[in-house]
Amino acid sequence: MDELNDPTYAYRVALVPITINNPRKADEVFEIVDRDSPEAEAIGIVLRDRERPKHLPGQVVNRMHELGFRRFNMHHHTQLWKQLDGKNRGKGFGADIAGTWYWYDTWVAEVEKHCEAAGDRYR
């Protein structure tokens, strides 16, 4: 069941209704049920709207400060994402939205792991 909650397996589909006279003439037949309906509950599939939390670079640095890595700064953050190719979309660390890069929680965890591995460098 963990796969159902994993955003890696999430995708979006837009279904556009096309009126036909006879369902047997359709290429595919889908029945759309409301996710709160008894039919959806009987199927056992729960669909949720899910928007991944996003963080600006300054928020990532501030989070590291909250965790005790006071010497970690924006320069270190920039060096790290360049070193790890963090803005490579295939790595799933973040997204470019309207020209601004936002980092996902997976990146925040990666930065925290880096800070922990650096020992006292950032404390």
Overall description:
With 123 residues, the protein is mostly helical. The chain folds into two domains: 2-43, no CATH class; 57-121, no CATH class. The protein is built from five helices and two strands, in the order ααααββα. It has helices spanning 2-5, 38-43, 57-66, 74-83, 105-117; strands at 94-97, 100-103. The chain has a two-stranded antiparallel sheet. The longest helix is centred in the C-terminal third of the chain and has 13 residues, at 105-117. The chain starts with a helix and ends in a 6-residue tail after the last helix. The mean pLDDT is 84.
Spatial extent as radius of gyration: 22 Å
Tell me, briefly, the overall form: elongated
How many domains, in number, for the residues? 2
Number of strands: 2
Strand content: 5-15%
Distance between the termini: 39 Å
The oligomeric state is single chain
- Counting DSSP H or I runs of 4 or more residues, the number of helices is 5
Q: Helix-strand pattern, N to C?
A: HHHHEEH
Give the strand order of the largest sheet, numbering strands 1, 2, ... along the chain.
Answer: 1-2
Q: What structural class do you assign from the helix and strand content?
A: mainly alpha
